[in-house]
Amino acid sequence: MTVTDLYQGMSDFYNAFVQRNRDYQAIATDLIDLFGDGQTILDVGIGTGLLVEQILHLRPNLRIVGVDTSASLLEQAEECLGSQVELYCEDISNLSVDKLFDIAYSRGGAWALVNDGDHVLLASHILDLATLERSFERVAAHLCDGGRLIIISSNSNHTKQEQLDDNIVFERKITQKRVDDEQYLILDYHCYHQKELVGQQQVKMRLVDLESVEKMLEAVGLISISNHESEYHVYEKRSC
């Protein structure tokens, strides 16, 4: 099966932008607390590995597997992490590795939570609801009994422009669209060098209300155990 690389057109500039907009050390510290005694970790949408790098700095003995659909970002993750982490270029809705995990988490890879001002919504690169449900089923199938899925809130649902090094300007424009009662985020990325366009990419994400998402999760045995006001929504695997 061919995996679509959503970030090929912006991968050269990805790290410089996200490092200015995400405190990976703080996120890693929070996740370590949530991991508890968990030792085997699945990163759903590992990207270039910046978050995992910080996690391993805090707990180097963790055994981490990273999955992403972007070969261009995974190349950078391999450079960053070396042999410390197993990497798979694979669609999470078709995940099949011979491993069980104590913890799975996602922050904007396959899924993230965003706040539109009135509601908490799931934003997902997976556009089809049946495929989204299957992605949850595949993750649940790879969690140990009592294992946990953590979906993290994201701040990437607003327009942003950053001046990077080497006179590079990185711009992210966000628009929200509704098509046949379905909601989408459209993320347009542009990189300029001295006002000349040197990279661009468009990413489309499906928005789904949290209540519907949690019904899908419950159907595969993943039950919410966290406060919905938290940035970290935690779901525990229980027998269906």
UniProtKB/TrEMBL annotation:
<dbReference type="InterPro" id="IPR029063">
    <property type="entry name" value="SAM-dependent_MTases_sf"/>
</dbReference>
<dbReference type="Pfam" id="PF13649">
    <property type="entry name" value="Methyltransf_25"/>
</dbReference>
<protein>
    <recommendedName>
        <fullName>Methyltransferase domain-containing protein</fullName>
    </recommendedName>
</protein>
<feature type="domain" description="Methyltransferase">
    <location>
        <begin position="41"/>
        <end position="120"/>
    </location>
</feature>
<dbReference type="InterPro" id="IPR041698">
    <property type="entry name" value="Methyltransf_25"/>
</dbReference>
